[in-house]
Amino acid sequence: MGLQQFEQRLERLVEGAFTKAFRSDLQPVEIGRRLTREMDLLRRVGVNGLITPNVFIIELSADDARRFERFSEVLARELADAAREHARIEGYVFVGPVEVELRRSARLRAGRYQVYADFEEGPDGMPAGLLALADGTEVVIGSQPVVIGRLPECAVVLSDPNVSRRHAEVCRVDGGPGALVRDLGSTNGTRVNGVPIREQVLVDGDEVTVGTTVLRFHAG
């Protein structure tokens, strides 16, 4: 299911301007399959269940890196999303935020690539969740609450006129890796999956709406 969604998103990605870039032997879906296979091979039994790598370095040949350069950030985000979705389906736990980095390697020829996977703890050594914005920005939920609002000192600053100066905050649940969203007395309220809330524990994939802005929560 996760890779299926990944493939569908990539099909849309390669339409138009990116079509020529994917005429090489290497297809991004191959990288997605290898990444999730590494997650399966390297999974371990941890205190909170099966843990799996959360940091991935993908080495590409100089030719392929050049072809993918124009949309490497988008591809890295899609691969990270595929990893999170695979973890959710398989019941894996991450020890920190998911990170994907694409690197150029002079020793690889076109069509060849390497995927290196590792475990890297999040803040305080606890599994970290994150908030993903529509523009691709990701904000990790660390030891301090993530405040969302229009004030410049907020962790997530939004220009949405329907958002209050200090609209809502997302923080870790005491004693555990989960996250909780809390409305801070905003004018227009906060919703989770379309339902108004004062505070609510978040689960992977929940959509938090403040004003007209939607943020997606990814569990770590």
In short:
By secondary structure, this protein is of the alpha+beta class.
Give the helices and strands, then pairings.
Blueprint lengths: L1 H12 L14 H15 L1 E3 L2 E3 L3 E7 H7 L3 H19 L8 E7 L7 E6 L11 E3 L5 E3 L5 E4 L6 E2 L10 E5 L6 E5 L6 E3 L2 E3 L1 E4 L4 E4 L2 E6 L2
Parallel strand pairs: 3-4, 8-9
Antiparallel strand pairs: 1-2, 3-5, 6-7, 6-16, 8-10, 10-11, 11-14, 12-13, 12-15, 15-16
Helix pairs in contact: 1-2, 1-4, 2-4
Fraction of helical residues: 10-25%
- Fraction in beta strands: 25-35%
What is the ordering of alpha helices and beta strands?
A: HHEEEHHEEEEEEEEEEEEE
Number of helices: 4
What is the topology, as strand order, of the major beta sheet?
Answer: 7-6-16-15-12-13
What is the 3D form? globular
Primary descriptors:
single chain; 220 residues; alpha+beta; six-stranded antiparallel β-sheet; five-stranded mixed β-sheet
Describe this structure in words.
The chain is α+β, with helices and mostly antiparallel strands and 220 residues long. It contains four helices and 16 strands. The chain has helices at 2-13, 28-42, 62-68, 72-90, and strands at 44-46, 49-51, 55-61, 99-105, 113-118, 130-132, 138-140, 146-149, 156-157, 168-172, 179-183, 190-192, 195-197, 199-202, 207-210, 213-218. The strands form four sheets. The chain has a six-stranded antiparallel beta sheet with strand order 7-6-16-15-12-13, with no helix packed on it. Strands 9-8-10-11-14 form a five-stranded mixed beta sheet, with no helix packed on it. Helix 1 packs antiparallel against helix 4 (72-90) and helix 2 (28-42) runs parallel beside helix 4. The longest helix has 19 residues, at 72-90.
